[in-house]
Every structure is written in structure tokens, then in C-alpha cells.
Design brief:
heterodimer, A: about 0% strand
Chain lengths: ~300, ~290
């Protein structure tokens, strides 16, 4: 396990280096710069600004400086939020996204896994259709459709929740639900097929023949291996929830990293955009590693490969 | 000698080509029937419907503003007085169009890339797949947003950008399949007979890749439509006066408390399309049953 972690972390270094280089190249290729505004500044001032950010040096020097700074964990200053460094903004906004993602994950698992198990237990009975249709709803109602609809019903009509903000616990419920439901339906489908697969195995028949209760068979013998595909889906799901939360964050006006990212995309805040991309990439690599470790813990056989 | 139909089917499955009874399987499946009926109806509405509607998607009527659904405007009008029905249908054209075109881009890049990696093998393969792994670490949606930000906002760019991020999975699948096919006797026979590489690739390998590629395509179209809608929803996609479902839902989401119909009608069309495409994708996957 330790060996795997070290190897994967070592693999992450060239990956992140390539991504950093790609973002650098993209930044250079971009037509126009962050300082080309509607009100153009005089060439002298523009020169001064560019000198301040080190944009006047030859390109290879800029590249070396860019990489060295990222290695030191310095993402450079934000072009639009004057006086702020990109890492400061990330440090402030990311915990909000993380919290939202965590709640969404809990909701996705709490809805998805039971729904999947139920539809597997009722396989080929009318009830299965009911459970699977519930799971389908999540797939065809992505966040940007579900969010406004939930707001319309629970905030405007019923007045149960605030339409936006991030202050009390009740402010967390609608955004987390909006973000989590899409993943819940995927988890439900994976749980269902995983459970159906396992229930076919002879050892389950043996357990049944021994007269074990259905509940014991389900919780002790089935779920451990049935949930394995769900666990491997959690890596991309968590990464997607945390990085894909910008729709939800813009909808509910939540000051998370996602809404900062979208705003910087609009404002041409290049350093901020690039910094966020690098940060997200590192995060995804980390989550995939964690998920692999959990899978090995659940199924030690995998460790041999 | 191949005698029975069953053996033929087994063989074709092993080589990854189209099963002989594909259409029978598809026609029997309820998922396929529901999916195709729903999707064809919706596409017909979007592509033929506008000819029968006496409004234009871009003519504004500021005097009426946002009006609730009525006999003249079945779906009501938006804030600028534009007919929502025709905007929903024209928006649907764009969403569906982008969905298919971006998938085509992904298919072309992914198949070519995966086939070369799998066929050439060795160090080239390792290097090429390492590159795919690297791109995998990038968040997809964020990459597309990045590309649209950097290179301006246009329809062509959107499907190029989406296609450019969606090909990765296919490249992996195709590479694996190509490696399998390459070890089979008929490819080795062709190589021994001195058939040039490009002909082996087009004649023998490409043909046997059809099944995983089709399944991938049917499963990718809905996710591409979804991605385009997210981008348009954020205001980075299709520019006014044109609309796609994403941008219409965005307009609706801003005014949903006052003009709920602006949100509800585009959402219904969008959700039903995604639903039908998912049904079709599932049906194809069941019919081909490749190892995906």
C-alpha cells in the first residue's frame, strides 16, 4: 500500500508538470491579455504593468520562473483582485466548496445506495421500475435544471429556505441536494448492478441454504463486494462534485472556488484561472489515489496486481 | 468452418464486430423503443416544427414583454417579447446539433489515436497513453471553459472544445480493442501476406472496432448535450440572439419567481431529450454487450 502511494505520487509529478506547461502555453497563445480593457491604458503604463508582472522578459525565462514559482506553491498574484495572491483566494474559497461537496457526497450515498439495493432486491418485480425511475430522475435533471426548480418550489412557493447565501445550516440543504442528486442516480445504478452480480454467486446460495437471514446475507455477505464499483466511482464523483460545483455556486450565490473560477474566466484573470486548473488537477490525482487505497483495503486481492 | 448461427454470433462478438441479430435485439428491447420514439418525436419537433410557427426566434416585441402562455404564444414570451416556443425549438436544434457534432469530433480523434497507439504498441503506445492519463487528470468541464475563455465564444469552438475533451475514454477503449484484434489470426495472416499497415488498419481493424465505437457514441451524445448546456448556462456558450437549451434555462433561472414558464418549458424539453438518449444508450449497450 505504501509502495503504491509512493509510486502514484511520483507519477503525479510529471503529470502536474505537463499540465503546468500546457496552461503556460495556453496562456501565451491567448489573443489579448488581461490588461486590454475597454478603456485602454497608455503604452507606457501598460509597459510598467507588464514589467511588474515579469511579462517583458524573454519567453524561456518567463517559463522557468513560472515553473519555479509553482514548485514553491506560489500561484502568483491575481490580475483582477488587486493585492490578492491566487493561493490566498484558493485558501479562502476552497473550504466552502469542500464543505458543499462533502454534504453533496453524503446525500448522494444516502440516496443512491439504498435505492440501488432496493431495486436489486425487487428485481423483476413491479417495485423495481418505481425505484429505477426515481434513479433516472436524477440523471435527466442536472444541477442547472434541478436547482432553479427546487428554488421555485421550496423557496419561492413554500418559503422554507433562503434563496441564496451561505450562513446557516439550512442554507446548505438545497445546494447540497442539487449537487448530490445527479451522483445519487449514478450510484444507485452502480449499486443495483453490483448487488445483482453478487447475488448470483454460489456463496450467497450457500448462505441462504444455511438459513441465514436475508438481512445478514445482504449486509455481511453481499454489500462488501457489491459496493466495489461504487467506491471506484467515488473518485471521479468527488472530484466532479468539488470542481463541478460552479453551477450550483453561481445559482445559490455561494462564495466557493467554483464561482471564483467562473468569474475569473469572465474577467480574463489568467493567473487565477490557471492556478485553479492546476489546483483542481492536483486534487483529482489525490482523490483517485485515496479511492484506490480504499479499494485495496476492501479487497486485498487487488494489491497483488 | 462456421456452421450454426450461434457460433457466428460468438465469433463476431469475440472480434468486437456488429452482432448479426443487432436490430432484432434492439427492436425487442423496450428501452430502445421508448428511447427512439421519444427522441425522434423531439427532434422532429425541433427541426420541422419551426416551419409551422408564425414567429421568429429573434424578433423582439418589447411592448408585450414577458407574457404567460396564451393561444398566440403557446409557451409564452420571454422578457424581450420573443416567442418561447420557437426559441425552445431552435435552441433544441443547436443543442442536438452540438451533441452530434462534438461526439463526431470525439469519435474521430479518439478512434485514430487509440488505433495508432494500440497498433504500433511498445514505446509509442506507452508514451501516447501516458499523455491520455495526463489529460485525464484535468477536470473536463473546466478544460472546456478554459478553452472557450481563451479562444473566444463561438459555436464551432464549443463543439471542438467538447470533442477535444471527450475523446480520452474512447482512445482507451479503442486502444485495448485494437491490441486484442491485432493478436488474432486474420490480422497476422494479412501481415504475413504483406498487406501495408494502413490497409490492415482500415480493412481489418477499423471494421471490427465498430461495436465499441457505436456504444460509446450513444452514451456520449447525452453527456455532450449536458456539457454544452452547462457552458451555455454559465453564459460562456451560444451567444444571443441564438439560444440553446442551456442558455434558455439560464434566462429562466434568473426570473423563475416571476415568469416560471421561462424555466419550465425549456427544462421539460431538455430533460426528455436526455432521458430518451439515455434509454437509447442503455439499449445499445445491452444489444452489443461489449466489455466496456
Amino acid at each position: 500500500m505504501l509502495q503504491l502511494s509512493i509510486r502514484r505520487l511520483a507519477q503525479a509529478i510529471p503529470t502536474l508538470w505537463i499540465i503546468a506547461t500546457l496552461t503556460f502555453i495556453l496562456m501565451q497563445l491567448t489573443p489579448g491579455g488581461p490588461f486590454d480593457q475597454e478603456k485602454p491604458v497608455t503604452p507606457e503604463i501598460k509597459k510598467l504593468i507588464e514589467a511588474h508582472y515579469g511579462m517583458d522578459k524573454p519567453i524561456h525565462e518567463q517559463y522557468i520562473q513560472f515553473i519555479v514559482k509553482r514548485l514553491q506553491g506560489d500561484f502568483g498574484p491575481s490580475y483582477k483582485y488587486a493585492g490578492w495572491d491566487v493561493d490566498e483566494i484558493i485558501a479562502q474559497a476552497f473550504p466552502v466548496s469542500l464543505e458543499l461537496g462533502l454534504y453533496a457526497l453524503i446525500i448522494a450515498i444516502l440516496i443512491g445506495v439504498p435505492l440501488g439495493i432496493l431495486s436489486a432486491l425487487f428485481h423483476k418485480k413491479p417495485m423495481e421500475i418505481v425505484f429505477m425511475s426515481l434513479a433516472l430522475i436524477g440523471i435527466c435533471l442536472p444541477a442547472f435544471v434541478l436547482g432553479p426548480l427546487l428554488l421555485l418550489v421550496f423557496s419561492t412557493e413554500l418559503g422554507w429556505f433562503n434563496p441564496f447565501g451561505w450562513n446557516s445550516f439550512s442554507d446548505r440543504i438545497l445546494p447540497a441536494f442539487t449537487l448530490g442528486l445527479f451522483y445519487a442516480s449514478f450510484i444507485a445504478r452502480l449499486t443495483r448492478s453490483g448487488t445483482l452480480d453478487v447475488l448470483k454467486h454460489p456463496y450467497i446460495q450457500t448462505a441462504r441454504a444455511k438459513g441465514l437471514s436475508k438481512i445478514r446475507i445482504l449486509f455481511v455477505h453481499t454489500l462488501r463486494s457489491a459496493l466495489s464499483p461504487v467506491v471506484s466511482y467515488l473518485g471521479p464523483a468527488v472530484a466532479g462534485m468539488i470542481s463541478g460545483s460552479f453551477v450550483v455556486e453561481t445559482l445559490f450565490f455561494i462564495p466557493g472556488l467554483g464561482s471564483f473560477f467562473v468569474n475569473s474566466a469572465f474577467n480574463r484573470d489568467d493567473t487565477m484561472v490557471m492556478g485553479t486548473v492546476l489546483f483542481y488537477a492536483a486534487l483529482i490525482i489525490l482523490f483517485n489515489l485515496i479511492v484506490d487505497l480504499i479499494q485495496i483495503w476492501m479487497n486485498p486481492k487487488l494489491n497483488r496486481d | 468452418m462456421i456452421n450454426s448461427k450461434k457460433e457466428k454470433l460468438e465469433l463476431s462478438k469475440r472480434a468486437g464486430s456488429v452482432p448479426t441479430n443487432l436490430w432484432q435485439t434492439l427492436c425487442k428491447s423496450n428501452n430502445a423503443r421508448i428511447g427512439f420514439t421519444l427522441f425522434l418525436t423531439l427532434s422532429a419537433l425541433c427541426f420541422i416544427g419551426p416551419f409551422f410557427i408564425p414567429h421568429s426566434y429573434e424578433t423582439t416585441q418589447l411592448s408585450i414583454g414577458a407574457s404567460a402562455p396564451s393561444v398566440v404564444h403557446l409557451f409564452g414570451t420571454d422578457v424581450l417579447g420573443r416567442d418561447l416556443l420557437i426559441r425552445t425549438l431552435v435552441g433544441g436544434q443547436i443543442s442536438i446539433f452540438v451533441g452530434f457534432l462534438a461526439t463526431a469530433v470525439a469519435l474521430i480523434i479518439g478512434t485514430t489515436y487509440g488505433m495508432i497507439a494500440g497498433y504500433v504498441g511498445k514505446k509509442t503506445d506507452a508514451l501516447m497513453m501516458r499523455f491520455v492519463d495526463t489529460l485525464y487528470a484535468l477536470p473536463f468541464t473546466i478544460m472546456v471553459i478554459l478553452l472557450t475563455v481563451l479562444f473566444g465564444r463561438s459555436l464551432v469552438l464549443i463543439f471542438l472544445a467538447i470533442g477535444a475533451v471527450e475523446w480520452l475514454t474512447l482512445a482507451r477503449i479503442v486502444r485495448g480493442e485494437t491490441r486484442n484484434i491485432k493478436t488474432q489470426a486474420f490480422v497476422q495472416a494479412a501481415q504475413l501476406n504483406g498487406l501495408p499497415h494502413h490497409q490492415i488498419i482500415t480493412k481489418h481493424i477499423l471494421r471490427n472496432l465498430i461495436s465499441p465505437v457505436i456504444v460509446f457514441a450513444t452514451l456520449t451524445i447525452p453527456s455532450v448535450i449536458l456539457l454544452e448546456s452547462v457552458i451555455s448556462f454559465l453564459g460562456l456558450g451560444v451567444q444571443a440572439p441564438l439560444a440553446s437549451w442551456g442558455s434558455l434555462i439560464n434566462e429562466g433561472a434568473q426570473k423563475f419567481d416571476v415568469y416560471p414558464w421561462l424555466l419550465i418549458f425549456p427544462s421539460i424539453f431538455f430533460s426528455l431529450t436526455i432521458l430518451s438518449l439515455n434509454f437509447i444508450g442503455d439499449a445499445f449497450r445491452d444489444a452489443f454487450d461489449p466489455v466496456l
